[in-house]
Amino acid sequence: MQCQQCDKQAVFHITELETGEVRELHLCEDHARVYLNQSEAAQEGEEKPAGGLSGPLTVGQTADELALLDKKACPMCGITFFEFRNQGRLGCPHDYVHFEKELEPLIANIHGGTQHTGRRPERPAMAGGDALPEGTDDLTRVIGLRRSMQEAISCEAYERAREDRDAVRSIEERWLTGPQTGAGPTNEGGRGDR
Amino acid sequence: MKLDTLAEDVGEWLRGTGPESDIVMSSRVRLARNVAHYPFVSRLSDQDRGDVERFLRERITASSAGSQLEYIDVGRLEEVDRQFLVERQLISREHAEAQGARGVAIDGREQVSLMINEEDHLRIQCMHSGLDLRGAWEQIRAVDDQIGRVVPYAFHPRWGYLTACPTNVGTGIRVSVMLHLPALVITRQIDKVFRSLHKISLAVRGLYGEGSQAMGDFYQISNQTTLGKTEEELIEQVGDVVPVLIDYERRAREFLVRETQQNVHDQVSRAYGILRTAQTITAEETMQLLSRVRMGVLLGLIGDVKIADINSLLVRTQPAHLQKIRGVELDTKDRNIERARYLRRHFEGGPPQN
């Protein structure tokens, strides 16, 4: 992609969040530096409105820090923050944990609030004995384990692949075997076998 | 489910019953849900996509909600059948046009639909005729509970139900009402109304959801935020504004009759005339004219037409419905001819007896 200010390649992709408006900027390194310095100066000069998110998402971050942030990847699904900003869709539930700091201002801007106050899932006890905890990050770990298993298989590290598969199975057996009482469907035990 | 038999009926959103159904076509609530142990839909491999579809299909079918539902494998449907479900508002356009394993479970009354592998793993929707957000909410809450007992919904204590797009996170709820506002359009007040809705964080969309144009003076009003308020508060936010809009539309209709009776009478009569005599007609023009005739009937300017018939024509003249009823695939040109023929027959012979 080309820089919006000159013919060089755009290496910085900035999402500006202004009241009710999202603006995408694609800039080369030089123009990004100029732009970021400008917006920081502007930010210092003006009074911050209540709720204070009128400025760019990137305030206080240098171009280098931005580039680093863009490369930050979720250990479960592997999506980078850069990919998320380009597509507008997250990769997996763990992104809300891994990118929490980066997502917080964005979510505050969209919704006004940053704390869920609505319904919460009711989880019956599973056949394994426990009920799935309210927060599901433990179960979401299988996404990373499956990815790791695939990688291990592709570089013929079969020992590691087996370990990953067993780890996936043990988590899935614990949380996915269906409720204790109901005649829920049986465990998809073979999931790790591909 | 036999889609052809569905074509005989109009589905929930055009049933034309329920409170305030002269202006409020339907009330809808949808919930976005994802399972915790797979990546979100846009990041699924083909195999994982199939696994998610199977996992949800099996668990939903086995849940206590499942016995009421019929499952349709959308990935295997012909294009015309997918379009047919879109026209009935049972799946979204995005879901129809997507690739790969996906499906929808629908109840016999077409009030509940559960889309699998749309933007999120699961989108639960409940639709009631007329103004009945409360009823739709009670129903969808029960379905959500039944499925939540057997499906590990991705959830975070702070962020709530986790969704592929941060715009849906938290409650995952979208509350919407579909309104027929022809008088506000004719009196050119509609833009002003929408600007004030935007100011209180409500979104306005056309008939078929995001990015769609408002055809035939039908508009969907819905909440834009999903986090930081409870489901009930968000339902109220939309519900509170509806009586105001109904009042505006009623007053605009009264104004039209009082101040421009002849003009309005002329407009609706011409619309009626075209529908009864045209030899070829597009879906868009049909919607527009049916909208005007609908208003004319409600204002008592056209006597011999029932609102239920107009509602029925609104969906049966859509491209996929027309082809299902006719039983053959038709290109655009032939569809326009067939549509005109269908309308003429309908108005000449009276509606076919059900």
Number of strands of chain B: 10
Which sequence of SSEs, written as H and E, runs from N to C of chain B?
A: HEHEHHEEEHEEEHHEEHHHHH
pLDDT < 50 runs, ≥5 residues of chain B? none
Q: What count of helical segments of chain A does DSSP give? A: 7
Question: What does this entry look like structurally?
Answer:
The complex is a heterodimer of chains A (194) and B (354). Chain A is built from 7 helices and 2 strands. Chain A is mainly α and 194 residues long. In chain A, a hairpin with a 2-residue loop joins strand 1 and strand 2. In chain A, helix 6 runs antiparallel to helix 7. Chain B is of the alpha+beta class. In chain B, the strands form 2 sheets. In chain B, strands 2-3-4-5-1-8-10-9 form an 8-stranded antiparallel β-sheet, with helices on one face. A two-stranded antiparallel ribbon of chain B has the order 6-7. In chain B, a hairpin with a 5-residue loop joins strand 4 and strand 5. Chain B is globular, with a radius of gyration of 21 Å. The two termini of chain B are 20 Å apart. At the A-B interface, helix 5, helix 6 and helix 7 of A face helix 2, helix 5, strand 6 and strand 7 of B.
List the topology elements:
The complex is a heterodimer of chains A (194) and B (354).
Chain A: E1 12-18, E2 21-27, H1 29-45, H2 63-71, H3 81-87, H4 95-98, H5 100-111, H6 137-154, H7 158-175
Antiparallel strand pairs in A: 1-2
Helix pairs in contact in A: 6-7
Chain B: H1 3-6, E1 24-33, H2 46-62, E2 69-72, H3 79-87, H4 93-97, E3 103-107, E4 112-116, E5 122-129, H5 133-148, E6 155-156, E7 160-161, E8 173-180, H6 182-186, H7 190-199, E9 202-205, E10 218-223, H8 231-277, H9 283-298, H10 307-316, H11 319-326, H12 332-349
Antiparallel strand pairs in B: 1-5, 1-8, 2-3, 3-4, 4-5, 6-7, 8-10, 9-10
Helix pairs in contact in B: 3-11, 8-9, 9-10, 11-12
